[in-house]
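Q: Predict the bound structure with norvaline.
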Amino acid sequence: MKHLLSIESMSREDIELILARSAVWKRERGVTSQRPLAGQTWAMIFAKASTRTRVSFEVGVHELGGRPLFLNAGDIQLGRGEPVKDTARVLGRMVHGAIIRTYGQSEVEEFAEFSRIPTVNALTDTEHPCQILTDLFTIQEKLGDLAGRTVTFIGDGACNVPTSWVFAAARLGFHLRVAAPRAYQPFADVLARAGVEVMVTEDVAAASRGADVLYTDVWVSMGREAEAAHRLQELTGYQIDDETVARANPGALVMHCLPAYRGKEIAESTFETHAATIFDQAENRLHVQKAILEWLVT
Ligand code: CP
Ligand code: NVA
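A: Predicted complex:
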């Protein structure tokens, strides 16, 4: 039984296989007659808001021949305190797979264990593996091989997206830099578990110099709203703007997992100049997640 719970738990071979199949699903969209989820129903349990992940998985499951069943966590008994493991045992008897967006990483792990159906982490507080697989695919599509490339993450370096980047760097061997204020730098235990050298600094200029990819994410992740005012203050300056881009390599990609808050983690003009890349990145969620679903059932 395969699950996609984190980048940390993936092998390099599986990542490479998914990236290779993503290119095929992208090229053959609307052409191929392959339906690896034919006759299946996949539950999508979301406890947090989503635009890209929800739409790309609903469309992706459908295009693979399956039926997505969207369940707002607040509308099912889970939201009234039914344990994750009981929800998992019920759904495991009725549906063929589950895609879960929630808070604790332990919730998706528990669901996977008790449901005994393929389970996907569609974002937790700890990791966002579907996003990072998509980002790796997008970089390969635009720059070719990742080997030797430098990816610089600027902003809140302690949330789910940069954590998944750290584990991706450990698997694929590109250079990762994180520019963040001290309290927002990747957790020491994440760096230790990954066992990869990451340049971690408060110096945005130093981290951007010679980068091939500049990447950012929101300063206030879902669930952190109460800290918003404090975060906006502390993260000021940790923005991708035109000056940052000028320090990076010529032709460097500017990427954002979205949603974007202009004037916060990214400047308006920088966002619009690089919108083609950023929205290709968003579109690629669909293609890569079809490859993930296929990988889970084959
Ligand atoms: N990037 C991402 O996961 O977007 P959503 O929150 O809209 O799904
Ligand atoms: N770090 C962000 C990612 C959104 C896709 C969050 O968790 O809200």
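A: The chain is about 45% helix and 15% strand.
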